[in-house]
Amino acid sequence: MLTGKQKRFLRSEANQLKPIFQVGKDGVNENMIQQIKEALEKRELMKVNVLQNSLEDKDTVAEQLAEGTNAEVAQVIGNIIVLYKESQENKQIRLP
Question: Where is the CRM domain (predicted)?
Fold first, then answer.
């Protein structure tokens, strides 16, 4: 689990990032979870955009993505979810 201080740090790091994935009306599926897992291994920190036509609630989507990828939800703001997962091979982010 992330502490409040770590979440604040990750939110500031994610500030300049653009969302890489979009969750639409089909919701979260296995293929998407696999792709996000791979992207998190490379980047550690990323944004996911929940589109207006998504049938799932953004908090539900955040929960499903975090569970499926074993990542932490650093923030849900508007329709954007910020995910963090420590990389095994490409460690770039040093948490406070």
Answer: 1-96
